[in-house]
Amino acid sequence: MAASGTSAGGNTRDCVCVFLHRLSEGNLPSIVKSIESMYGESARADLTSALTQVILDATLLPSRAPSRVVTDVALLLAVIHCRIGSEVTAAFLHELIHRYHALFTGAGTPDAGKQIDNALLLLAQLYNFKVCCERERLC
Asked: Which H or E run includes 112?
């Protein structure tokens, strides 16, 4: 899936979208392998940004996100944390907390409550997978 044109921002985002739509526990290894190869071929910052934006756009919905989807996304991030590097998940967590804060402080908007719930569910799953723990290392 990692084609030679994946360094372009749109193509990188499209590839990440395809991986996220295919995401399940059964095909997690092949998705991680493809993402790892993309990190070898693309600019790390661009790919991290695309991964972050696609995941947050897919999980911070104005309706309740299915818990299985959130769990699979958190598992993907936990594996990326171990196999690719903690800087990827650090950037993701930074953006997740930034969006949560923006939603929480502007909670008067419609559907903000469900988006806040989705952000907290994702954060809790990342904590469960020890992605955002300092003392206990997953890897």
From this structure: helix 112-128
Q: Which two tokens stand for residue 33?
A: 């392998």
Tell me which amino acid residue 94 is: H
Signed CA dihedral, 94, 2, 59, 67: sign only: negative
The tokens of 27 are what?
Answer: 């095909």
Which one, of 73, 55, 84, lies nearest residue 124 by Cα?
73
Could you tell me which residues come within 8 angstroms of residue 35 by beta carbon, excluding any fewer than 6 positions away?
16, 19, 47, 51, 80, 84
Residue extents of the structural domains in the chain: 9-128
Summarize pLDDT for 11-28 with one digit per residue, the tens.
889 999 999 999 998 999
Residue at token pair 């923006």: 102
pLDDT digits (tens, 9 = 90+) for 44-80: 999 999 999 999 999 999 999 999 999 999 999 999 9
Helix (H, G, I), strand (E, B) or coil at 90: helix
Assign domain 9-128 to its CATH architecture. Alpha Horseshoe (1.25)
Measured CA to CA, the distance from residue 39 to residue 41 in angstroms comes to 5
pTM for the whole structure:
0.86
